[in-house]
């Protein structure tokens, strides 16, 4: 079989399903295999690398969620860090209550509450001593906030740059709120010093690998769910809203409902990413709500290729991989590199890395269909 025929099959629907299966093997089964190897083996994967890859997978989930509303619906959000942080705080509250007598003050209250002379748990902490309640809250709290925010924003027909501005304003307002000690969420220091999750000590290598496997599987599931959305009727309407919303409204579609669904679903996915992120990183604080974090999320999608889903995930890995290297080797240059990367991609690779790869294939005579059912040649 010729190389061109292989590329054609790879870019078909079946080819992308095969790609997803291969990604599952690479992201999940290989670390499980490596866990059976002795630590001294050259093939063994270190706990540090597992934690780093798990964090990248969380970022990739967020990037795919953002691409759903930006690449396919045309709404650039500069506030997705809010939903990511809310999911993280929900899981962090469960992990804090799991510390119990292992804390510094040997109290049933989190250490920061004892330090601030709190006498009892705030009402909104109740129930977070149960894992599945916290996991459910990590999904529905961002979803509820997104639904309320989106309902009023879309009802007021806010779109374009104005929508981006108010989402960033939401992020900044919540960041200032979470910095306050009287919110009962740890203030500037946030929530940290976690000990265990669902009875498993977080310091164990097996726990770290289990969390990584769950995160990698969640990334694959997120990609498949979003792909299912954008390749059906919903996806066709969302792309029509992106390209010519007024015409879609003229045809009788209530575009607000479609945008609200995509916006809320995207927020729920970000909440899931935040919930998976916290036990692997070991901390959640208001710095996750910085507007710059939400801007970085948009850069991930732009670098990988918005409107492709797989490109958004790729961009998250590429940008954060570069960030991990630069912040160790040349920390003072990272922000300049990030800015230059975004400018170069905007000027020379407007369709991102995936778009550039597709154009390369087209020049070689390969008919390309975008993975998520977007444009095709």
Describe the structure.
- The chain is mainly alpha-helical and 377 residues long.
- It has one domain (3-363).
- 68% of the residues lie in helices and 2% in strands.
- The protein has 14 helices and four strands.
- A two-stranded antiparallel ribbon has the order 1-4.
- Strand 2 (196-197) and strand 3 (200-201) form a beta hairpin.
Q: In brief, what are we looking at here?
A:
By secondary structure, the chain is mainly α. The chain has 14 helices and 4 strands.
* Quantity of strands, as a count: 4
What is the count of distinct domains? Answer: 1
Number of helices: 14
Strand order of the largest sheet: 1-4
Distance N to C terminus = 22 Å
Give, in order, the helices and strands.
HHHHHHHEEEHHHEHHHH
SSE blueprint and pairings:
Layout: H1 3-10, H2 13-35, H3 47-70, H4 80-97, H5 111-115, H6 131-155, H7 160-178, E1 191-192, E2 196-197, E3 200-201, H8 205-231, H9 233-250, H10 255-281, E4 283-284, H11 291-304, H12 310-329, H13 334-348, H14 352-363
Antiparallel strand pairs: 1-4, 2-3
Primary descriptors:
single chain, about 375 residues, mainly alpha, two-stranded antiparallel sheet, 14 helices, about 70% helix, globular, disordered N terminus
